[in-house]
Amino acid sequence: MSDFGVLPELKEIIGALLFAAKKPVTAKEIRKVLMGAGETYGGPYEQFASLKEKEILEAVVELEEEHSKGATGLHVAEVAHGFRLQNNMTCGPWVRTMLDKDRATKLSKPALETLAIIAYRQPVLRSEIESVRGVSVDHILRNLVELQLVKVVGRSELPGRPWMFGTTQRFLEHFGLNSLEDMPGMDELKRRDEEETRKVEHTESFPEMEKELNESPNDEALNPEGDSNDE
Prior knowledge:
The chain is mainly alpha-helical. The protein has two domains: about 10-90, Arc Repressor Mutant, subunit A; about 110-215, Arc Repressor Mutant, subunit A. Helices cover about 45% and strands about 10% of the residues. The strands form two sheets. The protein has a three-stranded antiparallel β-sheet. Strands 1-2 form a two-stranded antiparallel ribbon. The protein starts with 9 loop residues before the first helix and ends in a 17-residue tail after the last helix.
């Protein structure tokens, strides 16, 4: 038994796991933890080891309802195909103040533009990004890779086999997206891509993406160099 002689409810266990996790946790991962605890501690802990993912997902819904009813300032968010606890947007100013996140917390405008192009056009070549922006993106691309928002996803079949870039799970986590399909204007962009056969052109979707990123509820600092000028 636990130290207090009473086992917690499944939703309580899940809440504790989400609180302790450093990244979004999937129902499959939660089930693995429950099974591991059952094997390690045995006895009454084994009752949770046999739970299915469906039951875990139902408990996640209950947990979110508890936070909503209790006005805790937190909610369960479905991000990057998993779940995490995060503060409500209305509480953001106080969280940012406590964490001193109001300074140098945003990507520069050139970096946002570059990230938007990659997010919508991936997999995309550096030359394609530069044809849209009209400037070199070497420095910005390196920064985005270092911030783990962008990664190399393969090589093109073009002469020289240049690298192709795409976004990471870290990108989804930071901007609170469950998948790339949740990005604004994604359906419209897919339609245009089919018509244009990967011909890179500047579209009206990029300003929308930039606005969405600037209004992101996640307040984690991502621009260690501040809003520097484009290089």
